[in-house]
Amino acid sequence: MKKQEQWSSKIGFILAAAGSAIGLGAIWKFPYMAGTNGGGVFFLLFILFTILIGAPILLAEFFIGRRTQKDAISSFQALAPKTAWPIVGTVGVIAAFIILSFYSVVGGWVLSYMWRTAAGVISQDMNFDALFGEIISNPVEVLIAQALFMIMTIMVVQGGVQKGIERASTFMMPALFILFIALVIRSLTLPGAMEGVRFLLSPDWAYLNGQTALTALGQAFFALSIGVSVMVTYASYLDKKEDMTRSAFSVAGLNIVISLLAGLVIFPAVFALGYEPGQGPGLVFVVLPAVFGQMPFGSLFFFVFLVLLLFATLTSAFSILEIVVAAVTKQDAGKRKKAAWLTGLAIFIVGIPSALSFGVLSHITILNRSIFDFADFMTSSIAMPLGALFIALFTGFKMKKADVQEEVLRGSSMSMALFNTWYVLVKFVAPAAILFILLQSVGLFN
C-alpha cells in the first residue's frame, strides 16, 4: 500500500502554500502592473479582488484536495466518477508542466543577475537594457542557468512534502520577509521616497476605469496561482482537523502583504532617484539595477533583492513541479525521487525553445508571439482562467452544498453566514469575474 504524505503542521502548510502563490506574480509583475495603471487605485482594486474573487477560489481548491486526499486528477475522479470533470485536473497538470518550462527560464535570469552582481560585473554606469538583452539572448548562459534552477527545484521536491517542500519553505518564506523589511527600510530612507509611497497608497481616481479594474482582477487572480489545481494537490496533504478556511485567507493575506512590500521597495526608490514608475516588465531587470546602483552599497542591496526574488521564484516552482510529480506517482512516496528527476528533465527539455526564444529562435513566432510569450499566454490567459472557472462551477453546481459545507466547516471557526457568503461568491460572482478576465485576455474588449 502506498504511503500518503502530509504536512507536519498548519504553519508549514500555510508557508508552503503562500510560497506557491507568492512568486514572480507578486514581486515582478505586481510593481510594473501597478506602475502602468495608476498605483493607488490599482492596488485598492487588487486588494478587493483578491479578497472577493481570489480567496474564494483558493478555498474551493483546498476543499477539493482535502476532501479526497488525492492528486489533482484523482481528486476529480473520486468526486465525479465516470464524468468529464477529471479533465479539469488533467489540463491543470499539463498547464503546470508548461508553466514551469518557461518559469524556470525566468528563474535562470535571476541566477544570471545574482552571479554578475556577486562577481562585481554589474556597475552603475552600465546600459542595463543592453545587459538584459545580452543575458536573455545568450543561448549557452540561459540554458545553463535554466538547468541550474531546475536542479535546485528537483532537489527539494524529491525530498518529499515534509523533508523537502515544507522544510525549504519554512526557511525561505521567513527569510523572504526579513529581507523585504530590510529593503523597505532602506528604500523609505531615501530623500524623496514619500512620493513613491503616495503613488502606491494614495488613489488617483482618474485611473478608475473598466480597463484598470480588469487588469487588477487579472493580477489578483494570477498572483494566487489558482486554476491549475496546485492548491488541490497541496491541500490533499492537509490533515482533516486543520482549519483550511483560515489557511486560505492567510495565504491571500500574505500575498497582499508581499505585493505591498514589493511596491514599498521599488516605488520609493524609483521616485527618489528620478525614474518613471510605468516602465513595464523591465522594471525589475532593467530599471531596478540602475536604481540600486545610485545608492550607497547599492550592489549589496540589489543582491539581497535578487536573493528574495530567487526564494519567491523557487517556492512557486516547488508547487508547480509537485502537482506533476503527484499526478505521475499517484502520491506514492516510494516513486517520488525517480519521478521528480524524470519529470524535471522533461520540463527542462520542453522549456529549451522558450529559453532560446529571445536569441537563436527569436525569428520563430506563434500568433505574433515569441515561443516564450505564446507559452505564457496559453497557460496564464487561457488554461488558468478556464481551470479556475470550472473549479468554481464544480464546487458550486456539481457538488452538493451539504457536502461542501461539511468539508469547509470541518475544523473551522467559520460561521454559517460567512460560509453562505463564500458559497455565493464561488458559485456566482467568481465565475462571472473569471469569464470577464478570459474574454478580455483573448481581446474581446480590446
Automatic annotation (TrEMBL):
Keywords: Membrane, Symport, Transmembrane, Transmembrane helix, Transport. It is a multi-pass membrane protein. The chain crosses the membrane at residues 12-30, 42-64, 84-106, 142-161, 173-194, 214-237, 249-275, 295-328, 340-365, 377-397, 417-439. GO terms for cellular component: membrane. It comes from the Bacteria. CDD domains: SLC6sbd_Tyt1-Like. It is found in: Membrane. Pfam families: SNF. GO terms for molecular function: symporter activity. InterPro entries: Na/ntran_symport (IPR000175), SNS_sf (IPR037272), YocR/YhdH-like (IPR047218). Its main location: membrane. The keyword Transmembrane applies. Signal peptide: none annotated. The keyword Lyase does not apply. Belongs to the sodium:neurotransmitter symporter (SNF) (TC 2.A.22) family. NCBIfam families: Na_transp. This is Transporter.
